[in-house]
């Protein structure tokens, strides 16, 4: 288990943290755009989605992202115990400075207009504001955050003197706690001055700020009330309040000297013209999801708009005509599956409430998507080229059309507490489901009637699998535990049960000590099963015997904590893949139990792995909301 990884290579990643403000930035080279994906920054070519680079240096969710105006530097901050700010060298794709002064969470990072300074501030617990020198990583100025929290920030240009001439002082604006504050910074002395803007009777919670393109005329402030305020910079006066749309103004971007684009929580995007203290609406369009990020392309002709639903659009600046550029999951990916006999398409389900069907050959295009209102989120699925069969958090089983994502039918009250696992028989006449309370149920496809109810598990059924030529048997695993109090500790037993469906009886039980079974798989002849779970081990079983035939540890260091959450055996039976809490996809040789490859890239626990039908690729999904496509070299 000490050999170097050799047979796995990252091909592509899908995933976007769209709920974070300003999580997408178009690079000034006109070729790339950057976005947050869990604890990773992804740099993707605008024309070729296969051309990706990854900036990895954070150990928790990235909470803010900024790109310098010249495109040479990238800055990012994260949440958690190690709430560092990292300044990246874009060309080298490596960290340049790591700034470790914040605690809890970094809320905002932003480069100054000349890229010489970087602003960062923490959340209400951190209460710290810093300005950094981007040439050496040193602190230029710092203070305790006032007001108590800052939700958004924008740099202006240089502050003006009484004759409206540039001074050596920088200016920037912050918003939070229903107040807007203007700051002046002397970068040579580190002295900071601030004053609040008087908004009179207009009291708002602010979501975003933006200066006009010349940084001299106006300051715009988007609010949770669905309007934005416009201030004249030279005299700090509120000149107008423009009502836009419901669910708040989430983002504002100045695209030229007298035009701004405004994105709203209801998906509406508006184009406004500013002239002589007057603001007029020019055009409007509708996107899917809250528009949390707007970034103008260097050409000035297009803008990239991203939503909290994972959709990234290219929008023309003159008339707001839109084209969907890509889409992603925005929350934990729970399950992935290829259809039988197909290697260029797969399906995914996520805690963001969606099921998506992807086509690898068409640049990872989503060919259809499935949603259900007021159903929670999907927990599991199985599918072929015609239908998607899925289990949901609300306890219902739903079937969708694979081509258009339309709901075909649903079974109400299939399992109390949620349908945790589901599988489809080879003959397509039956399907099997497992529930939160330990039930295993078999259903007739045509009538959708329950034909078998098997109850011996006492905890969540983690997986079910129909086996045998006629789907006559089902294998189920669970996190059951029978406890005995010995030496002030628990002795825990876990079960893999094999059922005879014809007679509705259990044929065999395989008991694993110390921890729940999270996943299993079987060989093609259904003679051998491998299980993995909370015991941090991989166990081989002969289904005709009650005791395990082989046990291997999931970590090189047996003391390391790597709980495997998922396991899948290749179709040729040569390898199996696992993923879990160490956030690494591991490839094992089935016959020897030898670790032959590791795929690193996820920034959260891996929930699901799956081999393609031709065994040339593996897909993995995790709590970071990412789907990784890996190439396998045999």
UniProtKB/TrEMBL annotation:
Residue ranges of WD repeats: 326-368, 412-453, 567-598, 599-634
EC number(s) given by UniProt: 2.4.1.37, 2.7.11.7
One Pfam family, short name: Beta-prop_EML
Leader sequence residues: none
Protein name: WD40 repeat protein
Alphabetized UniProt keyword annotations: Glycosyltransferase, Repeat, Transferase, WD repeat
Source superkingdom: Eukaryota
Domain Anaphase-promoting complex subunit 4-like WD40: 395-465
Molecular-function GO term, any one: fucosylgalactoside 3-alpha-galactosyltransferase activity
Residue intervals passing through the bilayer: none
Enzyme class: transferase
EML-like first beta-propeller domain sequence ranges: 51-313
PANTHER family, A to Z: F-BOX DOMAIN-CONTAINING PROTEIN (PTHR13720:SF39), WD-40 REPEAT PROTEIN (PTHR13720)
GO CC terms in record: cilium
């Amino acid at each position: 288990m000490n050999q170097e990884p050799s047979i796995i290579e990252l091909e592509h990643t899908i995933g976007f943290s769209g709920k974070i403000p300003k999580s997408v930035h178009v690079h000034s080279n006109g070729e790339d755009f950057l976005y947050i994906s869990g604890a990773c920054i992804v740099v993707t070519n605008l024309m070729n989605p296969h051309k990706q680079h990854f900036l990895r240096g954070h150990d928790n969710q990235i909470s803010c992202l900024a790109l310098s105006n010249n495109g040479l530097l990238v800055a990012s901050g994260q949440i958690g115990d190690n709430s560092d700010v990292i300044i990246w060298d874009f060309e080298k794709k490596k960290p340049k400075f790591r700034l470790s002064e914040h605690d809890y969470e970094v809320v905002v990072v932003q480069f100054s207009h000349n890229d010489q300074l970087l602003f960062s501030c923490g959340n209400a617990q951190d209460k710290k504001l810093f300005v950094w020198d981007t040439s050496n990583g040193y602190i230029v100025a710092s203070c305790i955050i006032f007001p108590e929290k800052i939700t958004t920030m924008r740099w202006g240009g240089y502050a003006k003197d009484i004759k409206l001439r540039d001074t050596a002082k920088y200016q920037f604006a912050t918003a939070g706690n229903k107040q807007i504050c203007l700051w002046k910074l002397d970068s040579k002395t580190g002295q900071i001055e601030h004053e609040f803007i008087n908004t009179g009777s207009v009291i708002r919670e602010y979501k975003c700020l933006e200066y006009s393109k010349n940084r001299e005329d106006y300051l715009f402030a988007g609010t949770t009330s669905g309007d934005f305020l416009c201030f004249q910079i030279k005299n700090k006066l509120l000149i107008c309040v423009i009502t836009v749309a419901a669910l708040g103004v989430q983002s504002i971007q100045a695209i030229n000297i007298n035009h701004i684009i405004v994105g709203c929580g209801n998906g509406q995007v508006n184009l406004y013209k500013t002239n002589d203290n007057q603001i007029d609406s020019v055009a409007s369009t509708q996107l899917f999801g809250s528009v949390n990020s707007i970034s103008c392309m260097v050409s000035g002709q297009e803008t990239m708009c991203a939503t909290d639903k994972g959709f990234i659009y290219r929008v023309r600046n003159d008339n707001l005509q839109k084209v969907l550029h890509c889409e992603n999951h925005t929350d934990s990916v729970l399950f992935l599956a290829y259809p039988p006999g197909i290697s260029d398409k797969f399906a995914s389900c996520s805690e963001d409430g969606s099921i998506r069907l992807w086509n690898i050959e068409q640049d990872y295009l989503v060919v259809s998507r499935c949603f259900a209102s007021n159903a929670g989120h999907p927990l599991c699925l199985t599918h072929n080229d015609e239908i998607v069969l899925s289990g949901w958090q609300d306890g219902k089983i739903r079937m969708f059309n694979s081509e258009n994502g339309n709901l075909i039918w649903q079974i109400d009250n299939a399992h109390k507490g949620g349908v945790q696992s589901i599988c489809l028989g080879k003959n397509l006449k039956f399907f099997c489901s497992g529930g939160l309370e330990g039930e295993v149920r078999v259903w007739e496809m045509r009538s959708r009637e329950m034909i078998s109810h098997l109850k011996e598990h006492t905890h969540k059924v983690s997986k079910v699998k129909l086996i045998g030529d006629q789907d006559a048997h089902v294998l189920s695993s669970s996190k059951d535990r029978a406890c005995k109090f010995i030496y002030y500790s628990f002795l825990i037993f876990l079960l893999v049960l094999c059922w005879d469906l014809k007679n509705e009886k259990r044929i065999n039980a395989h008991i694993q000590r110390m921890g729940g079974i999270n996943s299993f798989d079987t060989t093609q002849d259904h003679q051998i099963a491998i299980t993995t779970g909370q015991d941090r081990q991989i166990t081989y079983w002969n289904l005709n015997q009650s005791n395990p035939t082989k046990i291997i540890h999931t970590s090189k260091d047996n003391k390391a904590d790597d709980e495997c959450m998922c396991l899948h055996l290749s179709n040729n039976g040569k390898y199996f893949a696992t993923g879990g809490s160490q956030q690494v996809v591991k490839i094992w040789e089935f016959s020897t139990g030898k670790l032959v490859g590791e795929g690193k890239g996820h920034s959260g626990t891996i929930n699901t792995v799956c081999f393609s039908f031709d065994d040339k690729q593996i897909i993995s999904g995790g709590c970071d909301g990412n789907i990784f496509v890996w190439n396998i070299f045999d």
